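Look at one record.

>
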Amino acid sequence: MFRTSDIVLIAVMVSAAALTYKTKREAEEQLTAVHKIQAQIRYEEDTIDLLKADWSLLTQPSRLQKLADIYKSQLELEPVSARQIIGLDDLLAKPVTIEDLSSQRLGGMADSGGGKDPVVTGGIVQ
């Protein structure tokens, strides 16, 4: 019938076929993973390009100037003046309490009297 060498040869051939199939399946899975990663990279690059386009649109000097004009005219905002910027030496050393507000009347916030309220911008009375 069959000799021992024939059985060993058949076993080797079946093992080689199984190993070849397993290797092919793993290669296909990795190829699929590579395609997914490449698709993700393309998507992220498109997203970055879109964000760059949005950023360049939003930071156009003419657009920013229009917004500044609109905010100035409709909201009656004024440009920042040197009086609105204070140095570190001008900051209070300790936290402000309600008693301090009522006694020192910082920035006109505790003003309960009649008359015109002072304009407060950046914590400085104008």
